[in-house]
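Task: complex structure prediction.
Instruction: return structure tokens for all chains below.
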Amino acid sequence: MRSNRMGWGLLAPTLIILGIFGLLPFFYVIYVGFFDWNVFSAEVGRQFAGADNYRRLVFDEEFLGSVGRTLLFAFCVVTIEMILGFLLAQTLVRDFPGKAVFRTIYALPIMIAPIAVGATWKLLTIPGFGLLPYYLDKWFGIEYQLGSHSGQAFWTTVVMDVWHWTPFVTLTMLAGLTAIPKEPLEQAQVDGANRFQVLRFLTIPMMMPVIITTLFIRIMDALRVMDEVFLLTGGGPANATRYIGILIWRVVFPQTNYGYGSAMSLLVLYMTLVLAFLLFSVLSRVGKQNTSEK
Amino acid sequence: MIDHTKAVSAPVEHKGRKGFLPMETNLFDRISISVYIFVAICLLWLRFIEPLGPNVIYGALLCVLLGIFIVRKG
Amino acid sequence: MGKKRSNLGLIGTYILWTMMSIFTLLPIYWMVVVSARSRVELFSPGKFWQTTFYAQNYTNPLTSPAFQRYIANSLIIATSNALLVITLALFATYALSRWKLNGADNIFFWTITNRMAPAAAFILPLFLLFTRAFKLGDFMMFDTRIGLILLYCVFNLPFAIWLLKGIIDGIPIELDEAALVDGAGRWTILYRVILPLAAPGLAIAGILCWMFAWNEYLFAAALTSTRARTITTGLAEFVTVTGTNWGEMAAVATISLLPALIFLVFVQKYIVMGLTFGAVKE
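Output:
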């Protein structure tokens, strides 16, 4: 009994901090979400509004469009990164001189602040002196204008995210690939299986826990993308790259619509939690299957 | 004398039971699932059913009943 | 035949990875180039190489008091946060590893999803709490370093705990028991047995937490105004406030990624383990 108390005592400071700065805002946002609270509105203070914020939210085309856009972004980014990362990891399994150097260079984007990634890409794509607009125009005759073509803006954010996070996917995949036992693969090749069959029936099933863990982390990260896009396009042109984080920022700060912003935040949190829960169940189930097979 | 030092399970591992839900769940999981379903139904209600008439309160009540059922039997 | 083929494959690998390195380094290279150019040089298009160095882009921000404060704030916040996080995480992980604490695991599942959740969803409640609720007389949590230090714990603590969990679990309980038999108290065990064995893990967790705190932008932008601004918010200000001083912005961005360059060498091997919360090991 007594020592259990010590266990909780050691855990207490952590729980207190997480409670005050993690849980309290969560409950506060639920509470504020039921109020009509706009700093610049005629009525002073906040007024209870029941489910009105949510009533408005489920019909808000801007919000729903932004959610859809974020999901599309996450889908594009995660698909590209997973495939590219998996293929690139294959080439790194074997040792070759200079591998460590390439790996270190390649891992660099992971450590850079997202906002600095945005700054780098802004400098790269800015009309006037950016490399990309200049050479795209000179070599291919493509007019590259981030500020006016919504398609280009969207795909630039995708490429930026791929640049930023494919290294991470590659390195996790590589870790997974080096951890799987080599004998079954060699045995299969002796038995006459071709490369594709080995990949399809042996490597990928054995890699499943790593693949799913990476997928989980990447989906969650892609959905919360904000800083780099904020600096690169500011959500524009029009609303082409106004992902959900940027939309919330706009509702909260320039518009100071606190009640509505809370409802929006809460709904986004809700969607993330459900997604995390579903992915997590799948993840732990696959993990369990894998260990029971051993 | 030292039998109180037990290794704790990993944070991810769920020790639960099997109800009608397609996986093993503990109380925390079942409450979460109920809340998730509650919110989903209420939002869909707001969007599709309320314009036809019935207030969202009825939807919420329905969800509470469903939630109790899930927590007890899931 | 086989030998020839593997040689060909090796050349292919080199070509591929040289291209990947160029693709990776190009944006960073361009940023450094821009940071070395004056305004006039900047708008002479098509110049890819750089021979001159326009130092004013660096000296201007580095000598301005506001910017010095940003850097100091960032350093203080990141360092205090990292130290606080690894201390608390060591306690918490030890507790989780050696005692059966009912319900504690669920709390951590919840907080880990907290970390995964869109940060934007928390800026509003935190902004309101920081400006209206967390007050004590004249003291307001808004625009203070301590506010950011404690706030970053919410994101770094679950991360550090998950990372350390495997390491502490890996330290055999027999060592604790032996020390207990020798009459050592829990604190002594923690300090003499666990700390030395977990030190490498703590260092990695500390560095990664330091990087997260240094890199964080959104909360720093929402929860500070002047006194506690960090370098990342300073970087964003170049775009919005001072208009388009691209050279200085590039210089500040370059400065902001120096720690990444330095730490990369140390944690390169552990990045994967770190960023997957210890789920994928190398």
